[in-house]
């Protein structure tokens, strides 16, 4: 294997090139990204940059660190197509030949067709560093914010805005799943937002714009906001691969180890892994890192033998939400611990055979440790909270 090309220089791509070198790969390594500037990660965008923090805090490393490990980094270089049999990556100007290719192009903010007109009229999304800088500048104590989408990202944006004193409205459908938690914790989320002063609207809404403000009508209720953010999910950045590889709505289809085709692997948000759809870590940084390490091992001939347990966390209004394992459809969500008011703090996700396949906790590190320790074991009735 003499030339490995990695497309996408965020957490998946950067972890992959670093791991290859750590594992002793001494061939040529090229890392390219469509965006200009140094590689960066996304978690600080909602947790620091929206709070007014320096956007440079999101940097993963500087370009000299890549140079030091012999990686040719090419920012501002979008890949536009792929010849799998000929092992050539198509760029805007010419082809790049590879022996192994790692697809790490991640995802973009999803904007369904009925909402594109809102973007045209100035609504924000949050995916890139530029998005975060623009949204942070729009948030101020005197201005109102409306967030469309009550999943993890929408909830993090609400949490950041509230902590900056921004009057905030959350437009969320009831029953909406909390991202990878697939309903395990959703019944606690909307009450938490309300307790922090957020106006939560769960009815069908009509959004219009006039006199420089957004107007949100929901039945008899009306809200106004200066800034609107659409946070309704992500779309895998795989459109450029549709002619050459199996691509579905969740990304490039690959086997359970990330292999797509001979010489081609996929990691992170762009990878639709066999069996991985219900991992709690799907579309998270933790998954991108774990998959990148695994694929680097496969390319370097040093495969990882211990499977990684999927893991997810988020901080919402200061409450740490955690989950591990899988939450597929049809499982039972069994509360384990409750707080003094009787609300569940930790959960075991139990499959039809009675085996614990997932664990989740709400603001309870102890509860999470307890639930996580049960993964892969039969649920014992005596541990179940009444
Ligand atoms: C605001 C925000 C906060 C988040 N917070 C958390 C968190 O707290 N915890 C957590 O686990 N996860 C979090 N996530 C999710 C996490 O950031 C993603 O799961 C992770 O970034 C996926 O990494 P990736 O490398 O697969 O893809 P991405 O981070 O999407 O990176 C893909 C890269 O590929 C480049 N690219 C795309 N198309 C092309 C092309 N055709 N040619 C060349 N380059 C291309 C892009 O420019 C980009 O740099 C958050 C996401 C967001 C948006």
TrEMBL record:
ATP-binding among keywords: no
Name of a matching Pfam family: Pyr_redox_2
EC top class named in words: oxidoreductase
One cellular component term from this protein's GO annotations in UniProt: cytoplasm
Cofactor(s), names only, from the UniProt record: FAD
Residue ranges annotated for the FAD/NAD(P)-binding domain, each copy included: 3-287
Signal sequence annotation: none
Protein name (Swiss-Prot/TrEMBL): Benzene 1,2-dioxygenase system ferredoxin--NAD(+) reductase subunit
Species in which this protein is naturally found: Occultella aeris
């Amino acid at each position: 294997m003499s030339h490995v090309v990695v497309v996408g220089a965020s957490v998946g791509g950067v972890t992959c090139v670093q791991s290859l070198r750590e594992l002793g790969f001494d061939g040529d390594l090229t890392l390219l990204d469509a965006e200009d500037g140094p590689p960066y990660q996304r978690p600080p965008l909602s947790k620091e940059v929206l709070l007014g923090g320096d956007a440079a805090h999101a940097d993963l490393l500087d370009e000299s660190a890549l140079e030091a490990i012999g990686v040719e980094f090419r920012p501002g270089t979008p890949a536009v197509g792929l010849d799998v049999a000929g092992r050539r990556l198509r760029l805007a100007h010419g082809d790049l030949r590879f022996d192994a290719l790692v697809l790490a192009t991640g995802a973009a903010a999803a904007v369904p067709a009925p909402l594109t007109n809102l973007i045209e009229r100035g609504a924000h999304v949050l995916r890139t560093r530029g998005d975060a800088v623009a949204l942070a500048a729009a948030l101020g104590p005197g201005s109102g914010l409306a967030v469309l989408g009550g999943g993890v990202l929408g909830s993090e944006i609400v949490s950041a805005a509230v902590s900056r004193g921004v009057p905030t409205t959350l437009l969320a459908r009831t029953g909406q799943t909390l991202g990878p938690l697939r309903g395990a914790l959703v019944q606690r989320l909307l009450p938490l937002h309300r307790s922090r002063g957020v106006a939560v609207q769960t009815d069908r809404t009509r959004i219009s714009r006039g006199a420089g403000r957004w107007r949100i009508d929901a039945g008899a209720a009306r809200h106004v906001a200066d800034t609107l953010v659409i946070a309704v999910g992500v779309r895998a950045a795989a459109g450029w691969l549709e002619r050459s590889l199996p691509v579905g709505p969740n990304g490039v289809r690959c086997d359970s180890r990330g292999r797509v085709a001979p010489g081609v692997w996929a990691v992170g948000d762009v990878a639709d892994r066999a069996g991985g759809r219900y991992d709690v870590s799907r579309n998270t940084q933790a998954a991108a890192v774990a998959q990148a390490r695994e694929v680097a091992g496969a390319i370097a001939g040093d495969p990882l033998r211990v499977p990684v347990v999927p893991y997810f966390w988020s901080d919402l209004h200061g409450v740490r939400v955690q989950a591990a394992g899988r939450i597929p459809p049809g499982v039972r969500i069994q509360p384990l611990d409750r707080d003094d008011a009787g609300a569940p703090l930790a959960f075991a996700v139990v499959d039809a055979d009675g085996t614990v396949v997932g664990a989740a906790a709400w603001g309870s590190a102890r509860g999470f440790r307890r639930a996580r320790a049960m993964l892969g074991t039969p649920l014992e009735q005596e541990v179940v909270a009444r």
